[in-house]
């Protein structure tokens, strides 16, 4: 019951010459690895029967789509699909289209303006999904298996099938509701499954990628290598069709910037971190709100220090006893930026120092898909006088919950955990240390652990 679009086998087929180069014009593709270049090389249609040896033929439409005319598939829904007949722009195992601009780094100036659209037709029978496949790699790869992230966008599914991994959230993106699934099969697979079927989609690539980045499953330094749209049939598949497909830039189409976000506020400030929250922006230009940029300044110049697809952000790695100023701006799917919000000023707490001060350093002992154990958190009296009790604070990432703590007591307020010594370990001579530990749960697939421990 899962998608498993494994390309490792495909790389070997290319290496042995079994994967045929795209034909110039092929009205019907029945070869297992057959493909055809259309619109003077702008797109490539591929038959791509990678998960079975059953027959499949696709009728290529030179105007920009294809129809599956024959499909004898009968794969078990507990395993991989039989194929991924699709149309794509970009580079896939050495076969590159012309004029796509891919590979492109996800922090490039033109990335926010990339848009794709598709229209699809579904038969009444068969077991399949109808999905985009967006591939990202840490390098500008044009051949071989991408190792960064695979983003799938399921417009529809029929039958007893599900994406790789487990469901971790439900979000609203590109004006619709989507289930978010996450798993890892040697690379991160983030799937967005529409909660109600659709036959078309027109969206900014960054709308979904920004959400994946915000969840810690993708990085802005990675490269988009290809944008693909098609179907994964397990059983049958004849009659599935892509009527139209496009990838291009929306620059010049939507020129209306989003509205100004609400004034930010700060909470949970420690010596090395603070959490910001603000009122949501709105977008009326048609390309949809893609996320927010967080701007920080210690002098006169504000620079971008991070991004968020929600209305909150935790900034870490700050210096103790330092004043920072923050603003927030919104961006839409066409790359338009809103005016900057009002400014909030934050002063971090004093760090541990001499004269009875203390420091806290943490070690992550173990971590798994939806939890972790941090121990020891070592509290050291680095001052010149004895300590009569100590308190450690740290920010808890959103969605995380402390499920147990030993050798200390704790409370949680907002996003801040406050840990206090017990009767038997609060007195520390200069240079002495003591440790405590805790276990926490986190959303499945989230890779964060707390940082920014402050001792007082």
From TrEMBL:
Region described as Disordered: 249-279
GO function term, MF aspect, one: cellulase activity
Signal peptide (UniProt feature, chain positions): 1-25
Keyword Transcription regulation tagged: no
Entries under PROSITE patterns matching the protein: CBM2, FN3
Pfam family, one: fn3
InterPro entries linked to this entry: CBD2, CBM2/CBM3_carb-bd_dom_sf, CBM2_carb-bd_dom_sf, ConA-like_dom_sf, FN3_dom, FN3_sf, GH11/12, GH12
Domain CBM2 as annotated: residue spans: 351-456
One BP annotation, GO: polysaccharide catabolic process
Family, similarity comment: Belongs to the glycosyl hydrolase 12 (cellulase H) family.
Fibronectin type-III domain: residues covered: 260-351
Descriptive protein name: Glycosyl hydrolase family 5
SMART domains named in the record: CBD_II, FN3
């Amino acid at each position: 019951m899962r998608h498993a679009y494994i390309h490792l086998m495909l790389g070997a087929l290319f290496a042995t010459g079994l994967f045929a180069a795209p034909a110039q014009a092929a009205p019907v593709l029945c070869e297992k690895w057959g493909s055809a270049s259309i619109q003077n090389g702008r797109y490539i249609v591929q038959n791509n029967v990678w998960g079975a040896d059953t027959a499949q033929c696709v009728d290529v439409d030179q105007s920009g789509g294809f129809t599956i005319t024959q499909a004898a598939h009968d794969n078990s829904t507990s395993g991989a699909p039989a194929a991924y007949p699709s149309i794509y722009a970009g580079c896939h195992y050495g076969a590159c289209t012309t004029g796509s601009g891919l590979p492109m780094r996800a922090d490039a100036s033109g990335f926010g303006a990339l848009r794709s659209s598709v229209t699809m037709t579904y038969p009444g029978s068969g077991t399949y999904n109808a999905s985009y496949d967006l591939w990202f790699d840490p390098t500008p790869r044009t051949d071989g298996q991408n190792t960064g992230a695979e983003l799938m966008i399921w417009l529809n599914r029929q039958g007893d099938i599900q994406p790789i991994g487990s469901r971790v959230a439900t979000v609203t993106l590109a004006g619709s509701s989507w289930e978010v699934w996450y798993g890892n099969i040697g690379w991160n697979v983030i799937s967005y499954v529409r909660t109600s079927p659709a036959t078309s989609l027109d969206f900014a690539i960054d709308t979904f990628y920004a959400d994946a980045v915000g969840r810690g499953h993708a990085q802005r330094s990675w490269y988009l290598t290809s944008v693909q749209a098609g179907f994964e049939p397990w059983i049958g598949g004849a009659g599935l069709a892509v009527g139209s497909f496009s990838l291009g830039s929306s620059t010049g189409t939507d020129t209306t910037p989003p509205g100004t976000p609400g004034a930010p506020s700060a909470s949970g400030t420690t010596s090395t971190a603070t959490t910001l929250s603000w009122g949501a922006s709105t977008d009326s230009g048609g390309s949809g709100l893609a996320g927010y940029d967080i701007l920080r300044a210690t002098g006169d110049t504000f620079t971008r220090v991070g991004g968020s697809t929600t209305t909150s952000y935790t900034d870490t790695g700050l210096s103790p006893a330092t004043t920072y100023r923050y603003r927030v701006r919104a961006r839409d799917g066409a790359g338009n930026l809103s005016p900057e919000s009002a400014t909030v000023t934050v002063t971090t707490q004093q760090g541990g120092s001499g004269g009875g001060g203390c420091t806290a350093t943490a070690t992550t002992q173990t971590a798994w898909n939806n939890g972790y154990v941090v121990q020891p958190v070592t509290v050291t009296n680095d001052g010149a006088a004895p300590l009569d009790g100590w308190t450690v604070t740290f920010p808890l990432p959103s969605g995380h919950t402390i499920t147990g703590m030993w050798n200390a007591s704790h409370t949680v307020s907002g996003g801040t955990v406050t840990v206090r010594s017990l009767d038997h370990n609060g007195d520390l001579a200069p240079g002495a240390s003591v440790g405590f530990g805790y276990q926490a749960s986190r959303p499945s697939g989230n890779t964060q652990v707390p940082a920014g421990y402050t001792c007082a």
